[in-house]
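> run fold LytTR family DNA-binding domain-containing protein
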Amino acid sequence: MNVLLVDDSRLARNELRHLLQAFPDVQIVGEAKHAAEARTQVRELRPDLLLLDIHMPGETGFELLASLDVAPHVVFTTAYDEFALRAFEVNALDYLLKPIEAHRLAAALTRARAKLQPAAPSASPPSSPPEEVASTPLTEHDQVFVKDGDECWFVRLSDIRLFEINGSYTQIYFNQHRPLIPRTLQHLEQRLDPRVFFRVNRQQIINLKWVENIQPWFSNSLKIQLRGGPEVEVSRQQSVRFRELLSL
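> ok
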């Protein structure tokens, strides 16, 4: 995978070079200090991926993308979190906040590889609709983009205490917010780290690190109080799994 670094900070580019040494399949084909230089290099070098800063002298990273006839895949690298919504509106693969953490960069590169890998031919249709195909596994340290109507958030998974079915949507509990997303629990369960997120019943997945209190309940089941609420009832079958998971 050929990568072009675009950042007006030499220190930031050097840090990315250092982090990318851990990925032998990644080749840095060039560096650019501003949009005009990057535009020339994109045309001449045809990189697969841009690691792109937003604030640069002259044009911003968004203005650079708007000026390209054919743009590579993009991962934004920035010190500002307020541009997350706009970044995903231009189909960025990821949005990394400086200082960039190695595991976040690794996850972004995994997404880029998945985009660059040609799909294998298949004689039969997929067994599930595209929106239900599991993508790159997520850790509790990952941040995800959540949009509900006109509101949007860039939230770390460790801050989400509960996923709960609400009609044909899933409701997410973090801070005082309760947005709805068009995803099933089955899809989320495939993507979330099972060491942190546990399916307590058919309708709810909890973050184990938000468990405040556990009580015996009917028919050898359990009831769990989450910090900040609510209470959730663990099905009898999942209560057995819960005890096994958390026992020595």
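Residues 2-116 form a domain with the Rossmann fold fold (CATH 3.40.50.2300).
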